[in-house]
Design a protein that fits this description.
Elements: H1 6-36, H2 38-61, H3 69-97, H4 102-125
Helix pairs in contact: 1-2, 1-4, 3-4
Length: about 130
């Protein structure tokens, strides 16, 4: 049986990171939501989830041996802004059109932006460095 293509393993690691961060983000939403409501808890849970997401993907999913940290962080933060807008729109749509609790809408909205995030990280943020010519 032939070994899996490296992209399969990368997608699997990305999925594990995504699920881990989604559980972390959803748990923070649940915790903060008891005191602050669903909108404030969504906003407060986002930064620590983003930091965990960056670190796990840089070090494990895409391999963090490269030293382009300033470029990577700036591109990652731009990607986060774009995917946050997508995620927030899905979250607001779910909480206004369904009876889902805030934590469930937060988890589903997180899933919705994962595809865009993988593409951005694979082909831009953590792309392999070009060999010197």
């Amino acid at each position: 049986m032939p070994p899996f293509h490296p992209m399969v393993w990368k997608l699997a690691r990305f999925g594990v990171v995504g699920v881990t961060v989604m559980i972390f983000f959803t748990g923070l939403n649940w915790l903060f939501g008891h005191w602050l409501g669903k909108d404030a808890s969504f906003l407060l849970a986002y930064p620590p989830a983003v930091a965990l997401h960056y670190w796990l993907n840089k070090t494990w999913t895409f391999g963090g041996a490269r030293t382009h940290s300033v470029r990577q962080v700036s591109e990652y933060l731009l990607m986060v802004a774009v995917t946050f807008a997508v995620q927030a729109a899905v979250f607001m749509g779910l909480t206004t059109t369904t009876s889902l609790p805030g934590w469930a809408a937060a988890g589903l909205s997180n899933l919705a932006q994962m595809f865009l995030t993988f593409l951005a990280m694979q082909f831009r943020v953590f792309r392999p460095a070009k060999p010197p010519e």
